[in-house]
Task: inverse folding
């Protein structure tokens, strides 16, 4: 079964703690993305990666970090520097930079 | 500055009627447009796309129209069904770019 998995579905953390969200795909896609969804804000791009060992900042990268050591994996770390981390986080992948993106089920992060 | 705008936050239609969702864009370099559908607490799923060399693309009940001079695209759903009730996102990109830009979404409610 090909697809994108994100874990966990719900995540709770205390303020000031870093937390890493997992994103794995077995679609053999080169490009991967992280978005954040807030009510009334749509999808805002945090980071994207077109190829292994390379990634670029999106519109709202401050307070986040990523790595792309393997084609299949694109973990996102929400650092304590992110002022409003509570949100729904979506990971996506695509064959190439400008093609249909396939999304994972999302992770809802709540910072207490 | 929003490059992709969905000016109607919500739309209500009756089952069997036509649903028309609208999207405007400001960047004339965009040449590829997509529509995604999203249910609560799930990742978006790809619906339909259109490139700038076309003005219409049809897939079953879904048709996307592109008016390049007006920088406007629309998604028509005919006939609308209760299962179509979801948030619909418009997205745009260009061949030279590296990531899609998403609108804020329109919530469609189809009543039976």
Result:
């Amino acid at each position: 079964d090909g697809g994108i998995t994100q874990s966990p579905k719900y995540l709770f953390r205390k303020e000031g703690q870093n937390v890493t969200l997992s994103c794995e795909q077995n679609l053999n896609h080169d490009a991967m993305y992280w978005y954040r969804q807030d009510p009334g804000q749509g999808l805002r791009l945090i980071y994207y990666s077109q190829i292994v060992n390379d990634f670029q900042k999106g519109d709202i990268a401050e307070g986040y970090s990523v790595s792309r050591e393997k084609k299949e994996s694109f973990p996102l770390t929400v650092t304590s520097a992110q002022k409003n981390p509570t949100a729904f986080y979506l990971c996506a992948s695509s064959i190439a930079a400008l093609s249909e993106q396939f999304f994972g089920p999302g992770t809802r992060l709540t910072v207490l | 500055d929003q490059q992709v705008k969905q000016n109607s936050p919500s739309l209500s239609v009756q089952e069997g009627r036509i649903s028309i969702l609208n999207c405007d864009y400001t960047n004339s370099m965009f040449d590829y447009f997509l529509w995604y559908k999203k249910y609560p607490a799930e990742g978006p799923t790809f619906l339909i796309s259109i490139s700038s060399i076309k003005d219409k693309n049809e897939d079953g009940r879904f048709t996307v129209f592109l008016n390049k001079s007006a920088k406007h695209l629309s998604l028509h759903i005919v006939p609308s069904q209760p299962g179509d009730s979801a948030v619909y996102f418009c997205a745009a990109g260009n061949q030279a770019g590296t990531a899609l830009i998403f609108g804020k979404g329109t919530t469609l409610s189809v009543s039976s």
Notes: Chain B touches chain A through 25 residues (CB under 8 Å).
